Amino acid sequence: MIWAQAANGVIGRDGTMLWHLPEDFEHFRRTTEGHPVIMGRRTWDSLPERFRPLPDRTNIVVTGDPSWSAEGAIRAGSVHYAVVAALGQPGSGPIWIIGGGTVYRNALAAQLADTAVITRIDTDVDGDTFAPELGFGWDLATSEPASGWSVAKNGTRYRIEIWVRSREAGLILL
User: Fold this and answer.
1) Count of CB atoms within 10 A of residue 121's CB?
2) Is residue 174 part of a domain?
3) Boundaries of domain holding 66
């Protein structure tokens, strides 16, 4: 899973992100490029049309609407089916769950994720969508920088953390 969140856990409001952090956009692109990405329909809808589908990635959209379709996207009825669809795509490497809040929570509840790459932004914002709580069994593996904050060209302070599910917590494999 991969997301950016404000210090108070907000990841969005009204289908939009509440900050402009080009360094994080570049990190997201480098991390997910060449791999399947799984997102909810609202996340798909929130992407600017010129970025739909996200280039150089298999775009899998989770929606309960069986009639939904979009050029360049594979529809899945649940996060579980989205992962199954991603496993059937060419290439190797990680499958990235990119949002939104409900998709993250469902993936965690089903234990379908073993890594969370989180960009923490050093600000509080008002929002209506929140990052999931990783909870028991997740350990911080690394942080860049190791302590403190990076400072973006626009002055925004941020850091990128990689969290992994501990072996003791278990992981359901498909």
Assistant:
1) 24
2) no
3) 2-169
Determine if the pTM surpasses 0.85: yes
Q: Read off the pLDDT band of 173 (50, 70, 90).
A: low
What contacts 170, CB < 8 A, 6 or more positions away?
Answer: 111, 137
Domain-located, residue 107: yes
**How much is the average pLDDT of 32-38?**
96
Secondary structure (DSSP) of 128-152: SEEPPP--TTEEEEEEESSSS-EE-
- Residue 172 — very low, low, confident or very high, per pLDDT cuts 50/70/90? low
Q: Tokens 């899998």 identify what position?
A: 60
**Per-residue pLDDT averaged across 61-84, rounded?**
97
CATH number assigned to the domain comprising residue 161: 3.40.430.10
106 C-beta neighbours (distance < 10 Å), count: 18
